[in-house]
Amino acid sequence: MDDRRREEVLELLEEVHLRAEQVADPLHRVALRAKAASLLWEFDPALAQTRFESIRAWIEQQPSETFPTARARAELLRFLFPRNAQLARSWLDQMLGADDRLDSRGRGRSRDTPVRSKEKKDENEDGTENTNKGSITD
């Protein structure tokens, strides 16, 4: 790609990045900015990473009671993983441990709501451990 064409592409990606601020739906805004950052990665990985970091910071600043944080994080990671899997895994680990106050929809959860275990326990209906693992019972 010649220099003139490269500059045009970079200008268009910058315009997309700036205009994304006008998108009313926050999830669409995140997706649009993340996609632009992903495309930018081909031309300027350092600037693209900075864009991903700014998107992440914006997501984390949103009020968890009204903002679908988990969905926005997933959208961000969807575009980051193909470009920098190591960074994306690191962020994912941090995100999973950062806020256990979110429900499955990415909204704030009250303190009364129990946190679900990530491990599925093999239990009988009465809560006792199932000792018939692998057997078929009628």
Please provide a written account of the structure.
The structure is a single chain. The chain is mostly helical and 138 residues long. The chain contains 5 helices and no strands. Helix 1 (3-19) runs antiparallel to helix 2 and helix 3 (45-61) runs antiparallel to helix 4 (69-80).
Structural class: mainly alpha
Percent helix among the residues?
40-55%
Portion of residues in beta strands equals: under 5%
Rg estimate, integer Å? 21 Å
Mean pLDDT, all residues: 80
The succession of helices and strands, N to C, reads HHHHH
- Would you report the number of β strands? 0
- Oligomeric assembly: single chain
Low-confidence stretches: 109-120, 133-138
> Sheet with the most strands?
none
Give the helix tally.
5
Distance between the termini: 68 Å
Note the overall shape: globular
Write the layout of secondary structure elements.
Layout (H helix, E strand, L loop, with lengths): L2 H17 L6 H15 L4 H17 L7 H12 L4 H14 L40
Which descriptors would you attach to this protein?
single chain, 138 residues, mainly alpha, 5 helices, globular
Brief characterization of the structure:
By secondary structure, the protein is mainly α. It has helices at residues 3-19, 26-40, 45-61, 69-80, 85-98.
